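ugh ok fine here u go
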Amino acid sequence: MYTHITTQQPFPSTAAVFPEALALVLHDGNPALLQGPVPLLLDVAQHVRVVMVDAPRARQTAIHVVSYVYTLMTRDRIELVSFQWHPHGVAEIEFPHVHIGPALIRHDSVVRPGEAHKIHLPTGEVSLADVVRLAITEFGVVPRRDDWEEVLRRPDVLV
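structure:
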C-alpha cells in the first residue's frame, strides 16, 4: 500500500532508538486513488516511534503508532470518513475517534444540522489495514490482489 514513505528523518538501523516520533505519509502527502464503482481517495498520515524491544534471542526494533489520521474521500475531496487519533495536542479530543464526513450525511440532519462531520465518535484504535478493509468491503474499492484479506491480517502489514 505504501508506495512512498516519507519520514522526517531516515529510518534507524536496528541498533538505534528514536524517542521522537517520525511522520509517515502516503504518496508524499497526496491522497492515493482507489479504484471502484465510485473512485475514492485515501489520505494517510501517521506518527510512529521506533523503539528497541527484547526478543527471545536478541533485541529488535519495533514500530509503535503514536497518532494517525486516515481519511477516505470522494475524488473531489469531500470527506466520507476520517479515523483519527492525536493524543498529544492537535485538539482537546485525545481518544481514537471517527468523523463521519459530509459525503455520507445530509446537511438537513435534525441533530447538529450541518455539523455532524465535526462530531468525534469514539472508536478503539484503528489500523490502516482496518481502513483499507472498510474501503474494499463497504465502499466497493477493487483490491489489487486476490489474497487481500490474508495480507491485511498479517501483523507486519500496514503499520
